[in-house]
Write a structure and sequence with these properties.
15% strand; globular; 8 strands; 47% helix; alpha/beta
Amino acid sequence: MAKASEYLCVALDRPSLEEALGLARQVGDRAGFLKVGLELFSAAGPTAVRELRALGPKVFLDLKLHDIPNTVAGAVRRATALGASLLTLHASGGAGMISAARKAAEDAAAKLSVERPRLLAVTVLTSLDASALSQTLGIESPAQELVLRLAKLAKDAGADGVVCSAREVAAVKKACGAGFLAVTPGIRPAGGQAGDQKRVTTPADAIRAGADLLVVGRPVTAAPDPAAAADGILESIEEGLA
């Protein structure tokens, strides 16, 4: 059985590299992955990926790329050179964009003799619920139906997995296969505040649903003691694995 830490990714949403590195050191080896998102990447750029990789955990570069295929392919080539293990792009960018990203990742990895980052297609943000999808985006389909549609498109186009809420993981695995990665944000400890998230799940329930990686931000990063908070998440993951 995999260690609980291999299922935990801590989102280092910090305005400076110094703060992010400090938080990463507090968490230590409790997390198998550290996530570099838009805030940190905007502050520190590629240096953030390099510095965090040097600490040991794998890096999840969460830039949610969404542009024309040629532009995304160029960004993927640069991200591959950085050594990120996971990289996100929006499934709604379409099959052509995802296919171009996959080819760019493969070509760059072969040229540099490095491991190719696994590409994760973002389906429906966990901050959106049925009301937001309908009223803001004009999408009347239930979230799970939209997630499945985008997951199938992403898999056929060459993505390695998707980002979705834990509530959709079982359906994604059934439709796309057990080997298709399901990475789940919107993770909250039992009784924890949802914040701006709508489709939330506890760590244990996410693991039971079949999630491969849990992305946890504020429950750890905003805690008075991030290390202790991460330990609590790991205990819940172990409960789900039991």
